Amino acid sequence: MCHYIYFMESQKTFQVYVGRTDKDPKTRINEHNNGQSTWSSSRRPFKLIYFEKYLCKADAIQRELFYKSGFGKLIKKSIMYVLIHSGRSSDG
Known about the structure:
This protein is α+β, with helices and mostly antiparallel strands. The chain has one domain (about 5-85): 3-Layer(aba) Sandwich (GIY-YIG endonuclease), CATH 3.40.1440. About 45% of the residues lie in helices and about 25% in strands. The protein has helices at about 25-35, 40, 55-65, 70-85, and strands at about 5-10, 15-20, 45-55. It has a 3-stranded antiparallel beta sheet. The protein is globular and about 30 Å long. This is Excinuclease ABC subunit C. Pfam families: GIY-YIG. InterPro entries: GIY-YIG_endonuc, GIY-YIG_endonuc_sf.
């Protein structure tokens, strides 16, 4: 089973959320957009902007915690900067 870390952006608040799932990231974003998460229901719609794939759940958990840490937030911002300025994102 694969595990994923993903960044999604609220198209309402422009806040970026870091999440972890064992589902395809696009499927998970659809769940958020359909109101299947309490946190995200008032912030939808969301756009998938980035994801990473892991074979080990422990590695995915560690990476999620990293992106939510102080230094990890800087790395997340750097990744987003590159994606924005290259015109690319994980969903298209």
